[in-house]
Amino acid sequence: MEIMAGNVPPTILFKDICSLGRKSHIAYIKEMSTALQSLGVPASVFQPETYLLRGYTSALFAKRLRPLLNYNDAVKLERVLKIGIHHQHFDNYRSASGEQFYHFLEFLRTPAGQNALSLVAQQDRLARRGGEHFTAQEMGWIAMFEAHRNDLNGRLDDVRRDHQVVINDLELQLSEARHQLETDLARIKRKHFPASLYTPLCDVDFNKACWTEYTLECRRQKRLPVDLPFFRP
């Protein structure tokens, strides 16, 4: 079957167009992979067999990596990766699993993630301003300010320590309340069978389920699986 679309020659088949699209996505993934691996992110994160198994097509994975394109040097990119540590997506991005890293990419798309990225951009602007030469008087002011900051941080640590005991107690109560919530929800779901069994799948879960079934069928037919263009992008 042949198609015509815009400037696409009529002799190009649909499967060839899909192949061209996959190549551009894979090329972008490879570009970001090189930059991120240079900082220590595990190479396995960028392997098709890893992200396809988690429900990401090459197109979807490339789309999730797009926000990192603006951070075009190692210093900026490392600041972005440290967001993942700060928000507890991984303890160290150099040892992050595929699932941890993909959750981090999803977080960057949320309002909280976008806010964290804006703070990184703000830090970059301040760092550029700090590249100017300071006078001796200005250096003295900076030293005084740093001493004041150290006093502030010490006081803040004391207050945090005092309140942590209360926080720990409240977290225990919250954990117990969540457990009770799960118990009550399970009881209600049992009363509303079978409607309670249905859960709509998001794109990633849908692709993950399709990929699992597809690879099983490939094994049965003794064929090698390939990246499919008709998954949800």
Question: Could you describe the 3D structure shown?
Answer:
- By secondary structure, this protein is an all-alpha fold.
- It folds into 2 domains: 1-132 and 206-233, no CATH class; 135-198.
- The chain is built from 8 helices and no strands.
- α1 packs across α3 (58-65) and α4 (74-86) crosses α6 (111-129).
- The longest helix is centred in the C-terminal third of the chain and has 56 residues, at 136-191.
- Keywords: Coiled coil.
- Residues 160-187 form a coiled coil.
- Coarse structural class: mainly alpha
Ends apart, CA distance between termini = 23 Å
- On the 0-100 scale, what is the average pLDDT? 81
Helix content: 55-70%
Enumerate how many helices there are, as a single number.
Answer: 8
The number of E-state strands comes to 0
- Strand count, sense and closure of the main sheet? none
What overall geometry do the principal axes of the alpha carbons give?
flat
Rg, rounded, reads 25 Å
- Proportion of strand residues: under 5%
- Count structural domains: 2
Low-confidence stretches: 1-20
Sequence of secondary-structure elements: HHHHHHHH
Keywords: Coiled coil
Coiled coil: 160-187
